[in-house]
Target: Phosphofructokinase, platelet a
Amino acid sequence: VRFSCFFFFKELFCFSHHLFLTHSFLVDYNVLPRMNAAVRAVVRMGIYVGAKVYFVHEGYQGMVDGGDNIKEATWESVSSMLQMGGTVIGSARCKDFRMHEGRLKAAHNLVQRGITNLCVIGGDGSLTGANLFREEWSGLLAELVQQGLIDEEASQKYSALHIVGMVGSIDNDFCVTQRKCYLALVSALACGADWVLIPEMPPEDGWEEKMCQKLSATRSRGSRLNIIIVAEGAIDRHGKAITSSIVKDVSTECLKGESKNLESYLQIQHLYLIKYNNNNTNVFVCTCRSFENNLKTYKLLAHRKPESDNFNVAVLNVGAPAAGMNAAVRSAVRVGISEGHKMFAVSDGFEGFYKGQIKEIKWADVGGWTGQGGSLLGTKRTLPAKHIDKIAEQMRKYNINALLVIGGFEAFLGIMELLAARGTYEELCVPMVMVPATVSNNVPGSDLSIGADTALNAITVTCDRIKQSASGTKHRVFIIETMGGYCGYLASVGGLAAGADAAYIFEEPFDIRDLQSNVEHLTEKMKTSIQRGLNSNENYTTDFIYQLYSEEGKGVFDCRKNVLGHMQQGGAPSPFDRNFGTKIAAKAMQWISKKLNESYRKGRVFANTEDSACLLGMRRRALVFQPVVQLRDETDFVHRIPKEQWWLKLRPLMKILAKYKTSYDISDSGQLEHVVLNRPKQSEAMAAI
Model:
């Protein structure tokens, strides 16, 4: 399925060298999903900037062997590969490339074809090998000259080797990206595991007894399921391996007798032991902020703290349901209890608030919420302005000292309405924080919202199936309508992920001439499709575009339309949305605790400053608290979207990959981040996970 775009930027980067694309796994030969998407993008962008692009089949082995293993890639050679798993150009281990003689052969094969730019997609071993190859390059050319295999002119002409490495590994074990335990730790957050064992943080002595106490405690509260995640390579403080078999035996013994069915169903119903492949356990590990944040969040959520009643905090969902809302509520409740607060759940948003649908929610009440779709609290779009007096009354009745609102644009408007009423109702002079959760991703102050990733996954999977349905048929165009209101995020990013030819959105006005241009372009390439945002244009509706393409494409292609509808909201949240919701809600609750302590005076909480009502959003990979009043100028209230949206810069890529003639702005360059390699602190190494 394909989509397109219309962008004109100032700068165009261009070069006329040869580019070489390879997959290589020196350590692990497993291939990964979505590698083909990277291959497709590299090939088409390379051709777009004027490079001659080559495939090398079977990884470094193909580079060493040369011959037919190194072939020129064309635009069409990467068509229809987005939805394919694995890698179409192959991947293999290569012992020859580990040897100097093998790298010498590889250098010779590259020089013969004039290749001096490499794009290597692989894991730690692959990229380490690529770097070694770069370091040896000048010496390898000198040897080739000495052996008479190349002349001095070729040595000078191809004297520089440039390499771009893209990390592709399920272990996620490359130092500058994440830690070796990424899968185990982040999976523990995503599924709400009871216990996790990872090599970077060996548990203290006696971990077996503490784990059993934790499992027994959860069983005593009525839980019938325990999840323990063991990373392969997990060790104790003395370097002794902790395997899944050891953990199974320990847990079987400690839970014996607690369930009549335990013996026969232990492994398949009551206990999951998940083993993740992280083979290399080194003494030196690089400490990254993401790992530390994940670990702190897991510890807050996994281990129940003694309950106390410092302050009363209410949590509610507002707006349309978004996958990941329940993970956020679970995180907020448990972190709040850990911080010593009494947590209250409000059903059905602000409507339930003024009706008094409020009750205390405890630690065990949110067990198993992480993977649940929709909103278990209930959520509605009702705004609070017409019922401020009743909401203030409920705040007073339940002595609510702080509010956490999880939702979309309605939640943003609701916080602003509560803030405006502070002058009339002192009950509203409490810390308030909003966490963005909407599939539309249209909340100002945040680059990303909970639920948007799950919606994109649904769009991409559906588009893949639609494409596959057209296999073997005549040329066909699909018109696909996404959700999002006036925000074109889902149409644009979903179109990019699905390989669209056009994406019509409100943010970029289009007219009949643009539509005609697209029709003419599509007659030159098939099979294809178009994506349209829900409110992209009030006149050029999905039906209009469908009829236009059907009429103009007669004799060349036929047309179909699909309205994806509410399937984009439903279903279980993606792992990303589970983790994002968990971490952002935990941070929001910690902010609330801080503000409560700051605003507690003379036996009561009183907070009426601008920074006491904030939105917690993601800005360039960082979670940032922003007073909602400061976000007014950034907001288009008529169309319910931010005035500036980061993803608009991605739209030219869609057009380039669909073979339109356009330009691409690269002026917004990234920044290098230094990573320090050090040993874990003794105190950290002794901490129980």
